[in-house]
What does this fold into?
Amino acid sequence: MTRRILLDCDPGHDDAIAILLAAGDPGVEIAAITTVSGNQSIEKVTRNALAIAELAGLDPAVPIARGAHRPLLHEVEYAPEYHGESGLDGPQLPEPTRALDPRHGAQVIIDTIMGSEPGEITLVPTGALTNVALAVRLEPRIVDRVREVIFMGGGVHVGNHGPFSEFNIAIDPEAAQIVISAGWPITMVGLNATHQAVVTPEIRAKLDAVGTRSSAFVGGLLDFYGAAYAGHGFAHPPVHDPVTVAMVIDPSLVRTVKAPLAVELSGALTKGMTVADLREPAPATTPTSVALGVENERFWDVVAAALARLP
It folds into this structure.
Protein backbone atom coordinates (compact mmCIF):
# COMPACT_ATOMS: atom_id res chain seq x y z
CA MET A 1 0.00 0.00 0.00
CA THR A 2 1.31 3.44 -0.93
CA ARG A 3 2.19 5.63 2.06
CA ARG A 4 1.36 9.33 1.75
CA ILE A 5 3.98 11.52 3.35
CA LEU A 6 4.41 15.21 3.99
CA LEU A 7 8.06 16.29 3.84
CA ASP A 8 9.02 19.28 5.98
CA CYS A 9 12.62 20.10 5.06
CA ASP A 10 15.47 22.59 4.64
CA PRO A 11 17.30 21.42 1.47
CA GLY A 12 20.28 20.78 2.10
CA HIS A 13 22.18 18.01 0.30
CA ASP A 14 20.73 15.16 2.34
CA ASP A 15 17.23 16.68 2.23
CA ALA A 16 17.55 16.73 -1.57
CA ILE A 17 18.35 13.01 -1.59
CA ALA A 18 15.38 12.41 0.71
CA ILE A 19 13.06 14.20 -1.73
CA LEU A 20 14.43 12.22 -4.68
CA LEU A 21 14.06 8.95 -2.75
CA ALA A 22 10.43 9.75 -1.95
CA ALA A 23 9.72 10.85 -5.52
CA GLY A 24 11.24 7.72 -7.03
CA ASP A 25 9.91 4.97 -4.77
CA PRO A 26 6.54 3.50 -5.78
CA GLY A 27 5.64 2.81 -2.15
CA VAL A 28 5.58 6.52 -1.29
CA GLU A 29 3.38 9.38 -2.45
CA ILE A 30 4.44 12.93 -1.61
CA ALA A 31 1.34 14.81 -0.43
CA ALA A 32 3.15 18.12 0.10
CA ILE A 33 6.56 19.66 0.74
CA THR A 34 7.09 22.48 3.23
CA THR A 35 10.32 24.31 3.92
CA VAL A 36 11.89 25.67 7.08
CA SER A 37 14.94 27.79 7.80
CA GLY A 38 17.95 25.70 8.77
CA ASN A 39 20.71 24.58 6.46
CA GLN A 40 20.33 27.96 4.78
CA SER A 41 17.88 30.87 4.74
CA ILE A 42 14.22 30.19 4.04
CA GLU A 43 14.53 31.86 0.61
CA LYS A 44 17.41 29.62 -0.41
CA VAL A 45 16.07 26.31 0.91
CA THR A 46 12.67 27.02 -0.66
CA ARG A 47 14.24 27.63 -4.05
CA ASN A 48 16.22 24.42 -3.58
CA ALA A 49 13.04 22.46 -2.87
CA LEU A 50 11.44 23.83 -6.03
CA ALA A 51 14.54 22.94 -8.06
CA ILE A 52 14.66 19.37 -6.73
CA ALA A 53 10.97 18.93 -7.51
CA GLU A 54 11.75 20.10 -11.05
CA LEU A 55 14.59 17.60 -11.36
CA ALA A 56 12.44 14.74 -10.07
CA GLY A 57 9.51 15.58 -12.35
CA LEU A 58 7.25 15.86 -9.31
CA ASP A 59 3.57 16.32 -10.11
CA PRO A 60 2.87 20.09 -10.27
CA ALA A 61 -0.26 19.47 -8.20
CA VAL A 62 1.89 18.63 -5.16
CA PRO A 63 2.02 21.85 -3.11
CA ILE A 64 5.39 23.28 -2.08
CA ALA A 65 5.14 26.01 0.54
CA ARG A 66 7.56 28.24 2.37
CA GLY A 67 7.43 27.99 6.15
CA ALA A 68 9.16 29.54 9.13
CA HIS A 69 12.04 31.90 8.41
CA ARG A 70 13.46 31.62 11.94
CA PRO A 71 13.16 29.52 15.13
CA LEU A 72 10.45 30.16 17.69
CA LEU A 73 12.68 31.95 20.20
CA HIS A 74 16.26 31.96 18.96
CA GLU A 75 18.16 33.84 16.30
CA VAL A 76 18.61 32.12 12.95
CA GLU A 77 21.54 29.78 12.45
CA TYR A 78 22.67 28.17 9.19
CA ALA A 79 25.14 25.45 8.18
CA PRO A 80 27.16 26.74 5.18
CA GLU A 81 30.17 24.72 6.32
CA TYR A 82 28.31 21.59 5.20
CA HIS A 83 25.93 22.90 2.54
CA GLY A 84 27.58 25.98 1.07
CA GLU A 85 26.18 29.43 0.45
CA SER A 86 23.27 28.19 -1.66
CA GLY A 87 22.41 25.32 0.65
CA LEU A 88 23.00 22.98 -2.31
CA ASP A 89 26.48 23.88 -3.52
CA GLY A 90 27.98 21.51 -6.07
CA PRO A 91 25.82 20.54 -9.04
CA GLN A 92 23.93 22.90 -11.30
CA LEU A 93 20.34 23.27 -10.13
CA PRO A 94 17.52 23.23 -12.68
CA GLU A 95 15.50 26.42 -12.94
CA PRO A 96 12.16 26.01 -11.13
CA THR A 97 9.05 26.49 -13.24
CA ARG A 98 6.31 25.65 -10.76
CA ALA A 99 4.55 28.22 -8.59
CA LEU A 100 5.06 28.30 -4.85
CA ASP A 101 1.92 27.62 -2.80
CA PRO A 102 0.84 30.94 -1.23
CA ARG A 103 0.03 29.41 2.16
CA HIS A 104 2.48 29.28 5.06
CA GLY A 105 4.12 25.91 5.48
CA ALA A 106 2.47 25.35 8.87
CA GLN A 107 -0.94 25.94 7.28
CA VAL A 108 -0.17 23.44 4.51
CA ILE A 109 0.71 20.87 7.18
CA ILE A 110 -2.63 21.50 8.87
CA ASP A 111 -4.66 21.54 5.66
CA THR A 112 -3.03 18.38 4.31
CA ILE A 113 -3.58 16.39 7.49
CA MET A 114 -7.09 17.66 8.18
CA GLY A 115 -8.07 17.15 4.54
CA SER A 116 -6.94 13.51 4.55
CA GLU A 117 -8.38 10.45 6.22
CA PRO A 118 -7.24 9.81 9.80
CA GLY A 119 -4.05 7.75 9.74
CA GLU A 120 -3.37 8.54 6.09
CA ILE A 121 -0.51 11.06 6.39
CA THR A 122 2.94 10.27 7.73
CA LEU A 123 4.77 13.44 8.69
CA VAL A 124 8.48 13.39 7.80
CA PRO A 125 10.38 16.44 9.08
CA THR A 126 14.08 16.58 8.18
CA GLY A 127 14.95 20.05 9.47
CA ALA A 128 14.18 22.15 12.51
CA LEU A 129 10.72 21.34 13.89
CA THR A 130 9.46 24.94 13.83
CA ASN A 131 6.72 24.46 11.23
CA VAL A 132 5.42 21.31 12.89
CA ALA A 133 5.34 22.97 16.31
CA LEU A 134 3.42 25.92 14.87
CA ALA A 135 0.96 23.53 13.22
CA VAL A 136 0.39 21.63 16.47
CA ARG A 137 -0.30 24.86 18.34
CA LEU A 138 -2.59 26.24 15.62
CA GLU A 139 -4.57 23.03 15.15
CA PRO A 140 -4.09 20.42 17.92
CA ARG A 141 -6.46 17.99 16.18
CA ILE A 142 -3.70 17.04 13.73
CA VAL A 143 -2.03 15.01 16.48
CA ASP A 144 -4.81 12.40 16.45
CA ARG A 145 -5.07 12.31 12.65
CA VAL A 146 -1.43 11.66 11.72
CA ARG A 147 -0.39 8.07 11.18
CA GLU A 148 3.05 8.76 12.66
CA VAL A 149 5.88 11.27 12.72
CA ILE A 150 9.36 10.18 11.64
CA PHE A 151 11.83 13.02 12.06
CA MET A 152 15.55 13.43 11.50
CA GLY A 153 17.20 15.03 14.47
CA GLY A 154 18.74 14.46 17.83
CA GLY A 155 20.71 11.51 19.04
CA VAL A 156 21.36 9.43 22.12
CA HIS A 157 24.54 10.68 23.82
CA VAL A 158 25.89 12.03 20.52
CA GLY A 159 25.87 15.45 18.89
CA ASN A 160 27.17 17.47 15.94
CA HIS A 161 26.18 20.99 17.05
CA GLY A 162 27.44 20.51 20.59
CA PRO A 163 28.76 17.50 22.51
CA PHE A 164 25.22 16.15 22.97
CA SER A 165 23.06 18.30 20.67
CA GLU A 166 22.24 17.75 17.01
CA PHE A 167 21.79 20.71 14.64
CA ASN A 168 18.07 20.38 13.82
CA ILE A 169 17.14 20.19 17.49
CA ALA A 170 19.72 22.67 18.77
CA ILE A 171 18.60 25.55 16.52
CA ASP A 172 14.99 25.32 17.77
CA PRO A 173 14.84 23.15 20.89
CA GLU A 174 11.53 24.62 22.08
CA ALA A 175 9.85 23.58 18.83
CA ALA A 176 11.35 20.11 19.17
CA GLN A 177 10.00 19.72 22.69
CA ILE A 178 6.51 20.77 21.55
CA VAL A 179 6.56 18.18 18.78
CA ILE A 180 8.14 15.36 20.78
CA SER A 181 5.74 15.80 23.70
CA ALA A 182 2.56 16.10 21.58
CA GLY A 183 1.51 12.50 22.18
CA TRP A 184 1.45 11.19 18.61
CA PRO A 185 3.45 8.13 17.50
CA ILE A 186 6.89 9.58 16.80
CA THR A 187 10.31 8.17 15.94
CA MET A 188 13.53 10.11 16.31
CA VAL A 189 15.97 9.14 13.57
CA GLY A 190 19.04 10.69 15.11
CA LEU A 191 22.78 10.57 14.67
CA ASN A 192 23.10 7.09 16.19
CA ALA A 193 21.41 5.73 13.07
CA THR A 194 22.29 8.30 10.42
CA HIS A 195 26.02 8.18 11.11
CA GLN A 196 25.75 4.58 9.87
CA ALA A 197 24.18 5.65 6.54
CA VAL A 198 27.48 6.42 4.86
CA VAL A 199 28.68 6.74 1.28
CA THR A 200 31.60 4.35 0.86
CA PRO A 201 33.48 4.16 -2.47
CA GLU A 202 31.50 1.01 -3.26
CA ILE A 203 28.20 2.80 -2.58
CA ARG A 204 29.28 5.74 -4.71
CA ALA A 205 30.11 3.41 -7.59
CA LYS A 206 26.67 1.82 -7.27
CA LEU A 207 24.95 5.22 -7.46
CA ASP A 208 27.04 6.37 -10.40
CA ALA A 209 26.17 3.16 -12.27
CA VAL A 210 22.44 4.00 -12.16
CA GLY A 211 23.03 6.36 -15.07
CA THR A 212 20.04 8.69 -14.76
CA ARG A 213 20.11 12.48 -14.64
CA SER A 214 18.98 12.28 -11.03
CA SER A 215 21.76 9.88 -10.04
CA ALA A 216 24.32 12.14 -11.74
CA PHE A 217 22.89 15.06 -9.77
CA VAL A 218 23.25 13.09 -6.53
CA GLY A 219 26.86 12.38 -7.51
CA GLY A 220 27.44 16.12 -7.81
CA LEU A 221 25.84 16.65 -4.41
CA LEU A 222 28.05 14.01 -2.85
CA ASP A 223 31.23 15.50 -4.34
CA PHE A 224 30.66 18.74 -2.42
CA TYR A 225 29.05 17.14 0.64
CA GLY A 226 31.72 14.45 0.95
CA ALA A 227 34.50 17.04 0.81
CA ALA A 228 32.74 19.10 3.48
CA TYR A 229 32.45 16.10 5.79
CA ALA A 230 36.05 15.08 5.11
CA GLY A 231 37.02 18.48 6.45
CA HIS A 232 35.28 17.53 9.69
CA GLY A 233 37.08 14.21 10.07
CA PHE A 234 34.64 11.81 8.36
CA ALA A 235 36.20 9.20 6.08
CA HIS A 236 32.77 8.60 4.47
CA PRO A 237 29.97 11.21 4.53
CA PRO A 238 26.79 10.28 6.42
CA VAL A 239 23.51 11.23 4.73
CA HIS A 240 21.04 11.83 7.50
CA ASP A 241 17.68 12.83 6.06
CA PRO A 242 16.96 10.03 3.56
CA VAL A 243 16.96 7.51 6.41
CA THR A 244 13.57 8.88 7.50
CA VAL A 245 12.02 8.22 4.08
CA ALA A 246 13.70 4.82 3.87
CA MET A 247 12.08 3.91 7.18
CA VAL A 248 8.66 4.75 5.73
CA ILE A 249 9.42 2.54 2.71
CA ASP A 250 10.85 -0.38 4.70
CA PRO A 251 10.82 -0.12 8.51
CA SER A 252 13.12 -3.15 8.78
CA LEU A 253 15.99 -1.02 7.43
CA VAL A 254 16.16 0.89 10.72
CA ARG A 255 16.54 -0.57 14.21
CA THR A 256 14.38 1.27 16.73
CA VAL A 257 13.46 0.94 20.38
CA LYS A 258 10.62 2.49 22.34
CA ALA A 259 11.91 5.03 24.83
CA PRO A 260 10.57 8.07 26.68
CA LEU A 261 12.07 11.14 25.01
CA ALA A 262 12.48 14.81 25.94
CA VAL A 263 14.55 17.84 24.96
CA GLU A 264 16.80 19.68 27.40
CA LEU A 265 15.82 23.35 27.31
CA SER A 266 17.78 24.96 30.12
CA GLY A 267 21.11 23.20 30.63
CA ALA A 268 24.09 25.51 30.29
CA LEU A 269 26.09 22.79 28.53
CA THR A 270 23.34 20.51 27.28
CA LYS A 271 20.63 22.76 25.79
CA GLY A 272 19.18 21.05 22.73
CA MET A 273 20.16 17.57 23.91
CA THR A 274 17.58 14.86 23.24
CA VAL A 275 17.27 12.76 26.38
CA ALA A 276 16.13 9.20 25.69
CA ASP A 277 15.45 6.88 28.62
CA LEU A 278 16.71 3.53 27.34
CA ARG A 279 16.06 1.68 30.59
CA GLU A 280 13.93 -1.31 29.67
CA PRO A 281 11.16 -2.01 29.39
CA ALA A 282 9.60 1.26 28.28
CA PRO A 283 5.98 1.69 29.43
CA ALA A 284 3.59 0.10 26.95
CA THR A 285 1.90 3.45 26.34
CA THR A 286 5.15 5.22 25.35
CA PRO A 287 4.49 6.99 22.01
CA THR A 288 8.15 7.82 21.32
CA SER A 289 10.82 5.62 19.72
CA VAL A 290 14.46 6.22 18.84
CA ALA A 291 16.48 4.79 15.96
CA LEU A 292 19.79 3.21 16.88
CA GLY A 293 20.98 1.61 13.65
CA VAL A 294 20.51 1.31 9.89
CA GLU A 295 21.38 -1.45 7.40
CA ASN A 296 23.60 0.59 5.14
CA GLU A 297 23.87 -1.70 2.10
CA ARG A 298 20.12 -2.30 1.90
CA PHE A 299 19.43 1.37 2.52
CA TRP A 300 21.50 2.38 -0.49
CA ASP A 301 19.90 -0.34 -2.61
CA VAL A 302 16.55 1.36 -1.96
CA VAL A 303 18.01 4.77 -2.85
CA ALA A 304 19.61 3.48 -6.05
CA ALA A 305 16.37 1.80 -7.14
CA ALA A 306 14.46 5.07 -6.62
CA LEU A 307 17.03 7.08 -8.62
CA ALA A 308 16.72 4.56 -11.44
CA ARG A 309 12.99 5.32 -11.70
CA LEU A 310 13.51 9.08 -11.98
CA PRO A 311 14.46 11.07 -15.08
